[in-house]
Amino acid sequence: PHLHRSLQTIRGLGKQVGVTLNPATPLAVIEPVIRLVDLVLVMSVNPGFGGQAFIPDAVDRVAAVRRMARDRGLSLRIEVDGGVGPANAGALYAAGADTLV
């Protein structure tokens, strides 16, 4: 329930940290902590239900996270998971994703 505290605890142990954004999670959730993360995982399907179709809004979300990071001078990784394939991989990469699942 306390994202900032959890990230600080993990970082304090000398580990890298990441945050996952489910499709309905507002991007504003990561703004206060983006300087603490090494990776943002953008889910492009709702977790827990196999075989779902890719949610196209994920491309815009990736671009927004990349802008947020660049505006702050950060070089974090952006991973996308769910429904990724040849039809959308290029757009995700162009939007700023560097890891596709």
Notes on the structure:
It contains 3 helices and 4 strands; from the N terminus they run αββαβαβ. It is α/β, with parallel strands linked by helices. The protein has a 4-stranded parallel β-sheet with strand order 1-2-3-4, with helices on one face. Helix 2 links the parallel strand 2 (39-43) and strand 3. The model has no long low-confidence stretch (mean pLDDT 96).
Question: Keywords for this structure?
Answer:
101 residues, alpha/beta, four-stranded parallel beta sheet
User: How helix-rich are the residues, as a percent range?
Assistant: 25-40%
What is the approximate shape? globular
Distance between the termini: 27 Å
| Helix-and-strand structural type | alpha/beta
Total helical segments: 3
Strand arrangement, major sheet: 1-2-3-4
Q: How is the biggest beta sheet arranged?
A: 4 strands, parallel
For the secondary structure, the number of strands is: 4
Low-confidence stretches: none
Radius of gyration: 13 Å
Mean of all residue-level pLDDT scores: 96
N-to-C order of helices and strands: HEEHEHE
Percent of residues in β-strands: 15-25%
